[in-house]
């Protein structure tokens, strides 16, 4: 097999190998199924109750995407504002870091109190946990504009808006798209945390419910589906990143060569 | 005759980490229209500060700067600039990098859409004169350092500035490429007739290209010597191997060694 096909296949091979090792370990060591379920049991549960899993997976997916979309919108605006002015940057940063440090699991009870049990607290949690990396990355991209390039443009009479549009924003795009990959996985974390604590649907809710009834195969099935959704959305945004910021990847390659 | 660039008794102080720093002290420099001026001096003497002052990016603490009889109070909008780093925008093709100033400077800015084809043709032509015909549709990273610096020169000239400010534009290039680009700049200057202020560490570069070489003192910087370069134009690279050329470089070298110590 040539190295290129091997590289393409390797994510699949690794995933399959891990499942096989897991399955084998359960058989060889005769692991008690209340401790660890083999993947075959999880897949069997998925297959048997596919309607249930499909429904809860869908809820988690759309809730996450709504929270994430809010985070992108808000993150872009706040990132541009923070990147625009040093005064705002310095003023907002401590507040943002402080806020980001609070574990979101501690806020969920408050959100449930305000919005009631359901999708809204999950959307808000997903939003709160995922906007921070977007803001930081956009602001970093804007702040690292080469001062000499700014001089060239300013000497020509360019205003701050010109510099932002011609240089700052295109420069910040790779940072932005990079941050989406981080943000989307965080958004899933937010959704599931909230669903676990107070929801009527979603994979987090399912995990809490089935766990409480010791139906461990269903718990593992839900966990696997969650991981699958995370990988799927990560791949989508990695693809979008590649598409929109080819120049950043290629120029890095040439800088190394 | 009134000087085109008239720097008159300019002092610039700014607040540094350890008290006030005087970058320039009573610097006076008069460059005629169409002159090729080179500014040399020990490192940290405020050469680059001088560039920012002339282009209006900084305000002097004392003294005045006038270009073409008009006092500089803000960004001059009629100067082209190029630096040691080519500062290409990697997401734009070469031609779009060259066109960038036309998207900023009036009156081109408001005509940019309607005259796009004309501007592109002009940019292609300018690229051809620096030996980059047909490279317009490449991306900057596909070009070598010397080629990028050629593009940077084109970008600084596309809006036909009356004044070109160069801050060590060839310092990062290898010796052969550098000499090649001296000739590119020489030809552009001879053809288009703009005024140049070239800040450099390279005394051979200054002696080969300039009409007058202005030697700056160590900080706080001011002009301590004006050295006219007598060689006839157009100059060939051959001239750099003549004895007289060596003498000028030697003289400048001694002068800078002297001001570094004082």
UniProtKB/TrEMBL annotation, chain A:
InterPro entries: MetI-like, MetI-like_sf. It is found in: Cell membrane. One of its GO terms (cellular component) is plasma membrane. It is a multi-pass membrane protein. Residues 57-237 form the ABC transmembrane type-1 domain. Keywords: Cell membrane, Membrane, Transmembrane, Transmembrane helix, Transport. The lineage of its organism: Bacteria, Pseudomonadati, Pseudomonadota, Alphaproteobacteria, Hyphomicrobiales. One of its GO terms (biological process) is transmembrane transport. This is ABC transporter permease. The chain crosses the membrane at residues 12-31, 59-83, 95-117, 123-144, 219-240. It holds the Pfam family BPD_transp_1. Belongs to the binding-protein-dependent transport system permease family. Its main location: membrane. It comes from the Bacteria.
UniProtKB/TrEMBL annotation, chain B:
SMART domains: AAA. It holds the Pfam family ABC_tran. One of its GO terms (molecular function) is ATP hydrolysis activity. Keywords: ATP-binding, Nucleotide-binding, Transport. Residues 5-243 form the ABC transporter domain. Gene3D superfamilies: P-loop containing nucleotide triphosphate hydrolases. Involved in beta-(1-->2)glucan export. Transmembrane domains (TMD) form a pore in the inner membrane and the ATP-binding domain (NBD) is responsible for energy generation. Belongs to the ABC transporter superfamily. This is Nitrate ABC transporter ATP-binding protein. It comes from Tardiphaga robiniae.
